[in-house]
Specification:
Structural class of chain A: mainly alpha
Low-confidence stretches of chain A: 1-17
Mean pLDDT of chain B: 85
CATH architecture of the largest domain in chain A: Orthogonal Bundle
CATH architecture of the largest domain in chain B: 3-Layer(aba) Sandwich
Largest sheet of chain B: 6 strands, mixed
Oligomer: heterodimer
Helix content of chain B: 25-40%
CATH superfamily of the largest domain in chain A: MetI-like
Number of helices of chain A: 12
CATH class of the largest domain in chain B: Alpha Beta
Number of strands of chain B: 16
Shape of chain A: elongated
Strand order of the largest sheet of chain B: 6-7-8-3-9-10
Structural class of chain B: alpha/beta
Radius of gyration of chain A: 23 Å
Shape of chain B: elongated
Distance between the termini of chain A: 64 Å
CATH topology of the largest domain in chain A: MetI-like fold
Order of helices and strands of chain A: HHHHHHHHHHHH
Low-confidence stretches of chain B: 1-12, 381-395
Chain lengths: 246, 395
Amino acid sequence: MSSPTLTLAAVGEVGKGFIHERTSETLPCQATEKLFCFDWAKENIDRYGTPTLQHLELVSLAVLFGFTIAFTLAVLAHRRRWLQSPLLAATGVLYTIPSVAFFFLLLPLTGRGVDTAVIALTAFNLQVIYRNTIVGLSNVPSSVKEAARGIGQTDRQILWRVELPLATQEIIAGLRIATVSTVAIATLAVFAGGGGLGAPILQGGIDFKTNIIIAGGIAILMALAFDLVLLTIQRLATPWERVARA
Amino acid sequence: MPSDELTEKSTAGASPVRYAGATKRYPGSAKAAVEELTLEVPAGEICVLVGPSGCGKTTAMRMVNRTVEITEGDIFIGEQSVRERNPAQLRREIGYVIQQIGLFPHRTIAENIAAVPQLLGWNKERVAARSAELLALIGLDPDLADRYPAQLSGGQQQRVGVARALAADPLVMLMDEPFGAIDPINRERLQNEFLRLQAEIGKTVLFVTHDIDEAIKMGDRIAIMREGGRVAQYATPAELLMDPADEFVEDFVGADRALKRLALMRVADIDLWKAPLAEVGQATAEVRAALEGAEVPYPLLVDDERRPLGWLSERDLAGGQVPARPDSPLGPLLDRDDIMRDALADLLQGEAQYAAVVDGEGRIEGVLSVEIISEFLASPEAKTEEHSATERPRE
């Protein structure tokens, strides 16, 4: 295994002030190959406050924008069927572009910072949310739609009172996948200058496992928390899905 | 208040429905799905549109609430042309029941029933009161009001479907094979319930089915349709069975149409035989004398209220007096208001030649025999008996 100094050299400027100062002191733990240094963790946990908040902001904004855009597109495409395939292809392309590549593509246009990161993460989100909304809407039984029309609901009433409520489960399922993926991908936002939990990982270097475990652990907890919130919303919003069948 | 206005309109009762050359042509199809349909359904009657699949009966029905748009011609509800109405508003005044029921899975039973009143902007108290009233009308436990449709059986769901259609007291009801997806036992029950309900509410109903037996049972009038929505015959059930307009109708009604007629008659509608009666303790010589020339070869033992007790055999008459215990049990006992078809079934099932018919108090009215029924079915004069009472089929 390489020595701390070698690692530092590989990370270059980014690592300055994170491990460098520490290693110059005599801290035995992270100078060794130990998996996790509790002492260091206890002393330095407050370093992760800002990156965590940044990460939260990145994910929230990206999911919010992603949902707004994808949901609107899906509702539009539900009315105008011919839009469905082109939109699926377009969001598919955005989904496939590697996030890091996307950041670098955007840099000349939007510069380094949160904006660039949020734009790329939003674009990444569209596909899943769009597809799930379309699937949810098309899964509404035609008999229910026919009845709604037959009793005199207008197209708009059918959409808002029948189709969207019945698609809620699928839509939120899409949101959950999108949110959890975004929490993971947002660790790359640091390459766009967007901060987040990727920053301490990048700064600490690949050999400083305690740091990676803490930053990664926070990201996992954040993903679980988001998922739990969305799952709760899903259950509260669709009480009819869990009734005992006759 | 706008809601009051709507209420007044919606409680005006039933309206006649008149097709005036209504035509439906689908683009790219040479033949019209429904060609110049002209038909009048009187207010408060059930008109059944029946025919083989693809004959255009459902299309014809759906033109009324414009879930299928009319290409040419028009349909009038009362004096009002449906083509001049806003489709969504029109539909709120027309009850709509479909085979797949189509209850809103995400709404409770009460909310499902309240769907149309809500669209009409009724206030909460009125919607709730109407919901409760309808639950009672369709005989559903009030505890089910807060359940979701998935928690109800198919039969219960379709009752709710009917209640939803009735909620805003519509002028007209459209029922598209409403009981088609229900098992036979529940279907019969739902049919009977609906007929009872209809006797109370007297709506104008357009009822689509492919089942001629259901049509005969449910319809005040039946329009037998062939492809292109052309009416082969429009008549009362009795008329259809007695006097099919052409071979198509005859085929569709089926070879057993004579038997089907029995479904339309009650026991009291036919001339019964007089039974020779006997009372306990009566002299057997007297009873034997009464048997001479009687249509029924056995005397019927009755009590002092003339309620039948059983049949007397030769052995019973061997003594001087009529014994208290008759040799043969009574067998099937019929009410004068029983449906003739059921009466025949009782006779066949009881392996009996004769059945005593009683009135509401259980007193003997006469005797029905298998022979009477077969003679009735065979006699040409019987076939014209009811014919004169009903009007000629219109074309």
